[in-house]
Description:
Blueprint: E1 8-20, E2 26-27, E3 31-32, E4 36-47, E5 54-61, E6 73-77, E7 79-82, E8 85-95, E9 105-112, E10 117-128
Antiparallel strand pairs: 1-10, 2-9, 3-9, 4-8, 4-10, 5-6, 5-9, 7-8
Amino acid sequence: MHKFTQNVKTDVGLMTLSTATSATVSTGTSVDMTKYNNFVGLVSYVVASNTGTTTVYIRESTNAAVWTSAYLATATLASYATVPYIGGFGTIECRAEQMSDSYRYLRVEVIPAAASGIIAIENLRFNSRFPQASLPS
């Protein structure tokens, strides 16, 4: 069992807030996966109306500038209704072995179906590829 406090890199500085508009892609900050085996994107959103679903994707890149057209993972977020706003929270994940050869960057993309609001995307990388150095006690 993996302990959450071990080998986890929480990219708090890489949390992205964006204004969501109907069917427009909101992108998270890219992360370098060369030292980690697992990636989870945390997505939270609040929109003014619920006229469809919110879809989340993970894309890969070799240089964090040009992204593939194929998705490594896809998730549909369930909504909750709290008047006057509607929103949701969900996760999407990917393992290093799902990435194409020579690709090292990942990012989360969020597409709300037909609404406007705020989207927050945070990145978590964990399960280090290299042994952690032990600290003297």
